[in-house]
Every structure is written in structure tokens, then in C-alpha cells.
Amino acid sequence: MSYLKRIVALSMVVALSVFAMACGEDDSPASEETTFSLDSEVEEVEEECRGPNPAGCTQTGCEDGEVCEVDPDSCEPSACSCDDGSWVCTDDCAGGGQCVDEEQSCEGPNPAGCTQTGCEDGEKCLVDEDTCAPSTCSCTDDGNWLCTDDCGGGGQCVSEEEYEEAG
What we know:
The chain is of the alpha+beta class. It folds into 3 domains: 3-41, no CATH class; 46-104, no CATH class; 106-167, no CATH class. Helix content is 24%, strand content 18%. Strands 1-4 form a two-stranded antiparallel sheet. The chain has a two-stranded antiparallel ribbon with strand order 2-3. A hairpin with a 5-residue loop joins strand 6 and strand 7. The longest helix is centred in the first third of the chain and has 21 residues, at 3-23. The chain is globular, with a radius of gyration of 26 Å.
């Protein structure tokens, strides 16, 4: 509940109590026998953001049977959250992506590795610093991987235990 809504609700309770005391009524709504909840008196309305999360499936994930494909030429934030009806996002270009059916995707795993695709809960992305892998790849309409020409990606998902051992 917003601060202003709580103040208004509290002011109404105080006004009712003062009025009841001034009139000498013992069975007022604010008497000892009655409990009062500010949360039940004023309903908070959360504004939802319009449209899909701008961070795309790199943050939101995909349904079973789908994979997240990122366009290496686009610049989308890696994380966004909805705040009072507006998207608030990180100022980077490490996100985006659209969910597509696995059957329509390229052969084999994404060459950018888990630095782009992420890992399941309980796993971490272990990157071999001696291996050059692109930071971002996307699957073209003809089923080929299109990747950035850099060495900022790679990695494979391992258990947290294996990750700590390699650390």
C-alpha cells in the first residue's frame, strides 16, 4: 500500500474515533471491541506494464519445447522490472530474444554457450577462459547460427558443486 493511501486511511480512522469520543459513544467502530485493518480499508492497485518484458526470454525464459534465440545485432537490456506501470531496465545490451519452437531452431547447442542461454536452477555457467566463443548467436531462418565476432561467450552449465571446485 502506498504511503499516501496509508495516511488517508489512518486519518479516516482517527477522525471516526475523535467523533465517537466527542459524542460519548462507547460502541464506536474504533472502540476496543473492534479491530481495524488499514490494508482491508484501502485496496492497493498495482499498475501493470504494457507489452512484454523488454529483456525478452533471456530474463523470462521460454515454455517447454521452445528455445530463446537472440539477434546478435540488437541491443536489448539483460534485466527489466515493472515499477508503477513503467519498465525499468539495465543499461546494457546483453538481453532480448524471442522464444521459438525447438524444431525450428538450428542444429546443436547455441555456440555462445550458457553466457547467453543461462542455466537451470542449481547450476552455474562455467566459462573456460582459454576458449574463444562468441558472446551472442541467433538462429537464421535457414537454420544456421549467426554469431558475433568476439570471444566474450561460451561456457557450459555445471552443478554449483562442480563450479566451486573449478573456481
